[in-house]
Every structure is written in C-alpha cells, then in structure tokens.
Design brief:
The chain has about 300 residues and is of the alpha+beta class. It folds into 3 domains: about 35 residues, no CATH class; about 70 residues, Immunoglobulin-like (Sandwich), CATH 2.60.40; about 170 residues, Glucose Permease (Domain IIA). The chain contains 4 helices and 21 strands. Bound molecules: zinc ion.
Amino acid sequence: MAIGWITLALTCAVTGCAPGEAEVAAKKTPVAVQSKLAPGDVITIPHPRPAPDFKYQGELTQGGWIRGSVPSGTVSATLGDQQLAFERRDLEFFAAFDRDSPSSLTLSATLANGKIYSEQITVSPRKWNIQRVNVAKRGGGSSEAWWKKREPEWLAIKGAREKVTGAMGWQQNFIWPVKGRISGHFGRQRIYRGEPGSYHSGIDIAPGNGVPFVAPADGVVVLARTGFSLEGNIIIIDHGGGLNSAFLHASKLAVKEGQAVKQGDYIGNVGSTGRSTGPHLHWSLKWRDARLDPLLFTGPMN
Ligand SMILES: [Zn+2]
C-alpha cells in the first residue's frame, strides 16, 4: 500500500493530479518525497489517473466471502473459474470461498474498451479440526432401498438451492438465527483409517429444544418441508446473488415455500428431527457450490 501511495505522490508531483488526489497522497505519506530523489534518479511515470479498480471487503479466507464493486466500465468479471454477477446500477458483486478454496484466486474484469484489469486475491487457509480415528468408515446409506427414499429429498434440496428469487439479503451483514452454545463448528472432519469422512457443512447451535430462530438476512423461502431422513424438518432461504441458508432438525416450521422474509423474522423452532443426537439448529450457508462458514458472516456470538 505504502509503495502505491508513494508512487502516486511522485506521479502527482511530476505530472500534476486532480487536487483531491494529490491531497490524499500527501496525507498518506507525510514524508517529503521529493527530497529523497537524488539528481539523475529515473522516475517511471504512470498514467496520472489511477487505474480502474476493484473495491472490496470481506473475510478473505476459506469458508469466507468477498463483497464489493467491479471497476466502472466492466462488462464481465470473474473470480477464479467463476463468472461474477454484478448489479448494473452500482456495480456491486458478491462471491465466496469454499472450505477447500485454493489460497490464491484471480479477480478479473473486462472493460467495455476491451482492457482487462485483474488482481490476485489471497485466500488464507484455515486450520480445520481434523480427527484421525482408528475405526472403519461406516458404509451406511448406500443401499438401494435407502436411496429410493433419499433421492427425492436430495433432488428437492438441490432444486431449491438452484432457485433464483432476486432476493437482496446478500448485501446485508448477517445476524445469528438464534444464540446459544455452539455444539459443532463448520469444517470439522473425521478421517477413518485414512479414509476422509464428509466434513461438517454448517454450524450447530444448541439453545434448547423449541427455541424460536429467525432469518439471518432477507430472502425468500425456497424449501420448507418436514420429515426428511437426514435433515428432519428443513427450511432453505435464498438470499439472492447465489447465496442461500439451510436450517435443519427444526421442531416446527413457521414459514411456507415462496414466502419472502426479512432479516430477524421468526421462521421456525429448534428441534431434533432427522439424523440428530439432541436438539440443535444446524445452519449451513452455500454460495453456488461453495460451502461457507456462517461464523464468518455473523462475527462471533456475544
Ligand atoms: Zn450440524
């Protein structure tokens, strides 16, 4: 950063910038930059105006997210191999990083004039809770009879997550659907005699049976069903922008499919339906195919 500002300060000093830019540069670099130049020093002078730029913030780590705006004049943008959707009006985009995301991704924009602007995003790795256990991985859930019951549930969940509702919750700072003891973190995984089991795809919150929970952000209910074999009573909310939440094991559903909800609206009650060892809310978040850590959307519980 500092190098960037110094470069700008030099550039401004030599070529003259818009007054605002020069002022900002001067504030950031209180040192008298010009005095550091020795006679004969060569200064490369870039274009006096800063290049069009991505602006963003977020949790740039595995299971995290990024939200910002693409450079003005962008006609298409990508992050890694993902095409980004952005608002035509304010250029805002949202994307997220899978639990197993690579540590570097290219953020790239193609401008209307054909120029390509890109930068590297560093996605910091996480230290997942991995337990190596000396027992064989259970093969349960693979029989034909089981799949006959499971397949329609799996298809319903997949179909719901693919629905595009135009919800705008992706622009919000998420809130906790309910507060209580965190009984299971996102990403933990067991490895059975060298064979990895599937990792925990959400966060478990155990405030007690029957406690009401709310929508963490605005959205549209795309699934509200009872009696699923693993999930029990399940709600899925689309937050738009490819981002959606699933809530499992509810004792009661208080919303219907197609219903629009606002952040903080009551949507159901915590329970232990489906494959669950005690009353808790399993909350999972997905952006497209990426599985995300809800804790990175809400911040720590207090
Ligand atoms: Zn869980």
